[in-house]
Amino acid sequence: MENENNFSASFDATNQFYDGSRFLRPITEFTGLPIDQTNFLACQLFALAVGFVYREYFGPHRVSPFSRHIVQIAIGIPLTYFCFGRQIIHLIAQSVICFILMRFLEPGIMEKVVLVAAIAYLCICHSYRTIYDYGGYTLDITGPLMLNTQRLSSLAFSIRDGRVKDEKQLSEMTRRYAILKIPNLLEFSSYVFCFHGLMCGPFCFYKDYIAFIDGTNYQPPPSSRKPTSAEVNNHGCNSNSSSTFSVMLPPNPTTSLQKKLLKTFVYGIITILVLPKFPKTILTGPEFFECSFLHKMFLVILFAGLQRQKYYFAWKLGESVNASAGLGFNGYDERGQMRWDLIDNVDVYKVEFSLSLKELLDNWNRSTMLWLRYIVYDRVRSTIPVFFFSAFWHGFYAGYYMTFFTGGIFIHTARLMRRRVRPYFLTSTALKLAYDTITFLSTRIAIAYLGFPFLILELWPTYFIYRSLYFWMHLAAIGLAVVVLLPSLLHRPKKQ
């Protein structure tokens, strides 16, 4: 009885600001998971199951886009309320403000105002969260608001790009996502409350979402070969047709979905069973500072590597939920196999075995990187604003800014090394192997070294950890950049 009272007191203290449903509280007492995480998993599993029904019985081959929009909203709003309670008002308010701005402002100024309004609303909620849940990881409405900020800002820029008369002014990417028509209230609400992308995404551009709703994203297999019997069944191909499909049904994601779910299960087991044994106190506790330098670096790499598993779990679960509903189809590869990677958020193999920091970052949180490239990098052509905007979007913990600041230094140095040093190692297979080995190992160390502040969150604990490590990678990155740049600076021709 005393243990139950202790659990109840801990439960109330930890979740007093969480406004989601308490219906599943008996499960939390059995599993030990906090109510916010229990609700999150329950909503994702519910969306996964409903996704099958939505794809099969409410697909574009069976019902109109209008009906598909209605179903999205009818499921998405109750799910949001169940998981976040009255905090749903923030999602509605942010969306209404930006929708009005899109309707009444002229493109050219509209997209900038929408971006500022969306990010400002998000920042207010981030600030409030740092007051009531400082240093905590309670799953409140700020997660969906971050995703909604991506949707709203990208939609505004897509509208603007669709009004550009000279397409030569657009990059390939901005041309790809440009839209000609401002969505009506139904389409807009469906995009905001898409039930299989609400909790943890991944982010999807409006143009891709509408193509998924009306079925125009589905394509037949390449006409250079006959369709297989499985494709005939999955796509509704006329059996008399030899090269093209007369009737298109949504592609079947079963094979890809099974792989995603298997990965989700593995990362979920690691997250639930292993991660609790390695809390952040292994880096912030007094024992850490008594260790040797090499032991400290080992703990940093171990901690960062294990913490990545919870992101893999959430992202792969999100990908699975979307695939079950039919969102994620991306055509066919060169072998004619279906690709379900349109909104994939992470390629775990490329993250863990990348040969460069750029390759790693290109495959980590890919949908967010795509969004940042679309609304920031393609407009200003500089990586520095991208890093700072990304930190701003995440919130106001000092750890975020230390991670992105360090990342900016590392990326700059890595580019210099690739451009000016790597060519010397391409003269033989042995030298290239040596270079790849060095970059592989340095990337593993670098991502842990720059990533742990993002997990620690706070300024002073992060500073003391870096100080105990002598800021060695900061100094090494800056030193390498100076050494690589010095010859060109010394031999720069003097101005007449």
Please name the defining characteristics of this protein.
496 residues, mainly alpha, 0% strand, globular, disordered N terminus
Give a written overview of the molecule.
- The protein is 68% helix and 0% strand.
- It has 23 helices and no strands.
- It has helices spanning 2-15, 25-31, 35-57, 65-84, 88-104, 110-132, 142-162, 172-177, 185-192, 206-214, 229-235, 254-274, 281-284, 286-289, 293-325, 348-352, 357-362, 366-380, 383-394, 398-420, 429-456, 459-468, 472-490.
- Helix 3 packs parallel to helix 15, helix 5 runs antiparallel to helix 6 (110-132) and helix 18 (366-380) crosses helix 19 (383-394).
- The longest helix is centred in the middle third of the chain and has 33 residues, at 293-325.
- It is globular, with a radius of gyration of 25 Å.
- Residues 1-14 and 224-247 have low confidence and may be disordered.
Characterize this entry briefly.
The chain has 496 residues and is an all-alpha fold.
